[in-house]
Amino acid sequence: MGVYELLKPALFALPPETAHNTTHRLLRGVQGTPAESLLRDRYVVNDERLRVEAFGTTFPTPVGVAAGFDKNAEIPRALAALGFGHVEVGGVTAEKQAGNPRPRLFRLREDEALINRMGFNNEGADVVGDRLEREPAPNVPMGINIGKSKSTPLDEAADDYLYTYRQVADGGDYFVVNVSSPNTPGLRELQNRAALEEILGTLSDAGASPLLVKLSPDLPKEAVEDALGVVDEIGLDGVIATNTTTSRPDELKSPGRAERGGLSGKPIEGAATDLIRFVAERTDVPVVGVGGVSDADGAYEKIRAGASVVQLYTGLVYEGPAIARDINRGLLGRLDRDGFDTVEDAIGVDLE
Ligand SMILES: Cc1cc2nc3c(=O)[nH]c(=O)nc-3n(C[C@H](O)[C@H](O)[C@H](O)COP(=O)(O)O)c2cc1C
Q1: Which residue range or ranges hold the Dihydroorotate dehydrogenase catalytic domain (predicted)?
Q2: Does 221 appear as a known binding residue?
Q3: Which residue minimizes the CA distance to atom 14 of ligand 1?
Q4: What are the phi and psi torsion angles at 141 (to 5°)?
Q5: Was 84 annotated as part of a binding site?
Q6: What pLDDT is stored for residue 3 in this prediction?
Q7: CA distance linking residue 62 with residue 192, whole number of Å
Q8: What are the per-10-residue average pLDDT scores of the chain (352 residues)?
Q9: How many degrees, rounded to 5, is the angle at CA 61 between CA 113 and CA 74?
Q10: Ligand 1 atom 4: the closest Cα is on which residue?
Q11: Minimum CA distance residue for ligand 1 atom 5
């Protein structure tokens, strides 16, 4: 029996946000102690075949932690010790924010899903920037996900993103403009062409690089094409697909499905993969694939659909700390089975 099979019932007996905070504190306690290297010995898969180069960054393995799990950049080294090949911290906003009232995170157990309406709760760019400066960086790439402060009007968004970027600029290996969270009123309206040009152009002019944009799975296809036009025009380095959805697929069984917020996990897996494919077919920049990944088959499918690397959040909640190791091992098996020498050889093979 794995450790998580013992721990999971206790964690799942707690309210979801309490369970998250408990796990987070545990990992913070482990980070920087001898226990961190014990985790590394247990969970890190060292294999050259897993290495991916994308937007000038070397990823030792293709499975990373998605934004939102470590909002304040407190546990990137502990997450790397769990075998993740990159960690995207944040969303960080210019202002410190409490987020929405609790409860704001819900388990949809029968659906292996979560709904969240956290609302960018985070300590703010100044505090996170200081922490990034003070604490040692992880030995895997660290991305920084940047959101907009709730109190900043949409037409002042570019300066708000710029402020945060400047505070965290020295601490990140890549930067993500998040205009796709459903939990900050109006945020997703910033996915239109003019707003993207302004925000992405401002950050790019300020030297943000590599710079990526994270898209919503709810965006109409024409709007995705517009966004990709801006990606090309500004010379962005990559696209992350996808954030959570406000849609509620009919198949949802759990009572929590009626909660407001963004749905993540298994029920969005197919839609996320479809958007990865759609994006990869229309741009030459690398795609970071995220949405519902919980096993090696799911990660492999996204890679074959055009994702250079993948990320997950909800899978970690349901599958536990061995998830990155299990996916990495599983990927090696699938590469062997299908005659690929490396993960890089499998990227996009299912595209037309
Ligand atoms: C509780 C929670 C908080 C999140 N916070 C952020 C965030 O701050 N910024 C962001 O871009 N995505 C955020 N996300 C979205 C995830 O990064 C990811 O795109 C989404 O959950 C789909 O992946 P998954 O199905 O593997 O969870 C959050 C997700 C969850 C569940």
Answers
A1: 50-333
A2: no
A3: 68
A4: -60, 140
A5: no
A6: 84
A7: 30
A8: 88 98 98 97 98 98 98 98 98 98 98 98 98 98 98 97 98 97 92 95 98 97 96 98 97 97 98 98 98 98 98 98 98 98 98 90
A9: 65
A10: 68
A11: 68
72 is in an annotated binding site: no
Spatial neighbors of 157 by CB under 8 A, at least 6 apart, are 148, 190, 195, 198, 199
- CA of 336 relative to ligand 1 center, distance in Å: 31
Q: How far is Cα 65 from Cα 195, in angstroms, rounded to an integer?
A: 28
Is 151 exposed, middle or buried, given 0-12, 13-18 or 19+ CB atoms closer than 10 A? exposed
Question: Which residue among the candidates 37, 149, 180, 181 is catalytic per the annotation?
Answer: 181
The full set of domains in the chain, from first to last, is 3-346 (3.20.20.70)
Closest C-alpha to 177, from 198, 151, 150: 198
Alpha helices in the chain (DSSP H): 3-12, 16-30, 34-43, 76-81, 125-134, 157-168, 193-205, 221-234, 269-282, 296-304, 314-319, 323-338, 343-346
From 162, 164, 230, select the one nearest 196 (Cα to Cα). Answer: 230
DSSP assignment string, 47-113: -GGG-EEETTEEESSSEEEPTTTTTTSS-HHHHHHTT-SEEEEEEE-SS-B--SPSP-EEEEGGGTE
Instruction: Please answer whether residues 70 and 91 qualify as being in contact, where contact means their C-beta atoms are separated by less than 8 angstroms.
Output: no
